[in-house]
Design brief:
The complex is a heterodimer.
Chain A (H helix, E strand, L loop, with lengths): L4 H24 L12 H29 L2 H32 L8 H22 L3 H15 L2 H11 L23 H44 L1
Chain B lengths: L17 H19 L1 H21 L3 H34 L1 H7 L4 H30 L7 H25 L5 H28 L4 H29 L3
Helix pairs in contact in B: 1-5, 2-3, 2-5, 3-5, 3-6, 3-7, 5-6, 6-7, 6-8, 7-8
Classes of the chains: A mainly alpha, B mainly alpha.
Chain lengths: ~230, ~240
């Protein structure tokens, strides 16, 4: 079961893009005047957060599609997307913490953005636990789809948290609260590097999703074969 | 091909009117609770224990008590309500009456409303008893109409999503453990907004500081209600 040609090409281009984006972030983009080198966390920090939100949006859409059509493919996409989303949200929170240590002088603070992001992370970990806890496969898919819809409530809240409330977390894109710490103005090379990181991470997400859906489909086929083997 | 009479997928339109079905379900739960007083008494005693434990563990003096009162009260109700939500479906499943409810010729949404209303009644009864006791123990007056309204709205939002997730959690392997894991993170925004609004009201803050979280509670109530009504049917298939 070799992956097909398109998937191989996509994987190769994702690797190339990551290498290029490393160059963009560390060499092409200038050093930020006030924060120094640690500001370079920004490019992957925001990109990882974006992929997390995108992955959970995909889960919402395919969960609705699964309930509407009962097509197994949508369920495979849903579980794959949640797993990738949780990994990227973890990266987002961890890199944010690394950035916060020198700039806010603390690893963690109970700011609305940090709170809502960690709540979102917990919701989707609960999604994976729910799937683990259900034995009947048909019921597992149906319940997971319902929870995938309920869980999404936490995503727009996380996105809006820095725009709704007074917070220490900066809003680099769009208007900003004067209380935020670690604000900076992006120069053109910074903006280019940032956009390139976003693009790279989106491609990486699509690649991982495709691989993960494929293994999920293979696992399903193995389960079918096993049940045939033992029932005969 | 015409489905046979015994085909379970052959769903006839419900023969009982919607609100008649809801009231029958609520009455059934209330009658059963009146006989064994299982859920309300468990939630009540548990609430008292949580209030006591908070008092010891936080070692509260007078100022601290006023600052944390809304938070302590809400954590108490959240824990107690989780017990009640677990029980209301677990009892149905253990008695085998859940299958009976599913076989009844009623709309599945009526099942949701029936369970929601009866559980809401149980939780509100506990709150009505605990709030005055809390007022005395923490020496703080909670009899403010706005405070009680926020309490009602918060309880409503929490119970709506709690019923939906409890209907899921009873089918999992570790069902009592699963409900809080599923429910707490989803309900956190409602709980935070309710605590913020209640704390603002208790400390006599100006309306501008109360209105924000209060709006958030209302918005969340509506969103969660809409999601619950739309998805509950999918949890009730066997």
């Amino acid at each position: 079961m070799q992956p097909n040609r398109n998937l191989r090409i996509l994987t190769m281009s994702a690797v190339l893009l990551v290498l290029l984006s490393l160059y963009m972030n560390f060499i092409y983009a200038p050093r930020e005047v006030i924060m120094g080198a640690v500001q370079r966390v920004f490019y992957y920090h925001v990109a990882a957060g974006w992929v997390g939100a995108l992955a959970f949006l995909v889960t919402l859409i395919v969960s609705i599609l699964y309930l509407a059509t009962n097509n197994l493919r949508w369920d495979h996409v849903a579980v794959s997307s949640v797993e990738i989303g949780v990994v990227f949200t973890t990266m987002n929170i961890a890199s944010g913490s690394i950035w916060a240590r020198p700039i806010w002088n603390t690893w963690w603070t109970w700011d609305p953005r940090l709170t809502t992001a960690s709540v979102m992370w917990l919701v989707y970990v609960a999604y994976l636990m729910l799937r683990q806890g259900l034995e009947n496969p048909e019921q597992q898919r149906r319940f997971a789809a319902v929870y995938g819809i309920v869980a999404f409530v936490s995503v727009p809240l996380t996105f809006m948290a820095i725009r709704l409330w007074r917070t220490i977390h900066p809003v680099v894109i769009g208007s900003n609260d004067p209380a935020a710490e670690g604000q900076f103005d992006m120069t053109t090379p910074m903006r280019n590097a940032f956009m390139f990181s976003l693009f790279t991470f989106t491609v990486v997400y699509a690649t991982l999703l495709w691989h993960r859906i494929r293994t999920e489909g293979l696992a399903y086929r193995v389960a079918i074969m096993q049940s045939r083997l033992f029932n005969d | 091909m015409k489905p046979s009479r015994l085909d379970p997928t052959d769903r006839k339109p419900p023969t009982t009117s919607f609100w008649l079905a809801v009231s029958a379900l609520v009455w059934k739960d209330l009658a059963s609770e009146l006989r064994n007083k299982e859920i309300v008494s468990a939630m009540f005693v548990f609430s008292l224990l949580v209030v006591l434990i908070f008092n010891f563990s936080l070692d509260l003096d007078k100022d601290a008590r006023e600052n944390v009162a809304a938070g302590v009260l809400w954590v108490t109700f959240v824990f107690a309500a989780t017990l009640g939500l677990n029980r209301t479906f677990a009892a149905e499943k253990d008695r085998g009456s859940l299958d009976g409810l599913l076989l009844a010729p009623i709309d599945r949404t009526a099942l949701f409303f029936g369970k929601l209303l009866s559980t809401l009644v149980f939780i509100l009864i506990v709150e009505i008893i605990v709030v005055p006791i809390f007022s005395i123990l923490y020496n703080i007056s909670l009899f403010n109409p706005l405070f009680l309204l926020v309490l009602l709205l918060g309880t409503l939002g929490y119970t709506v999503v709690g019923i939906l997730l409890a209907a899921m959690a009873i089918h999992t392997r570790a069902r009592e453990v699963m409900l809080p894991i599923l429910l707490f993170p989803v309900a956190v925004p409602v709980v935070i907004a309710t605590v913020r609004a209640s704390a603002g009201i208790l400390s006599g803050a100006e309306w501008g500081l109360i209105a924000g979280p209060l709006n958030l509670v209302i918005v969340y109530d509506i969103i969660l209600f809409a999601i619950a009504i739309m998805t509950f049917d999918y949890l009730m298939e066997e």
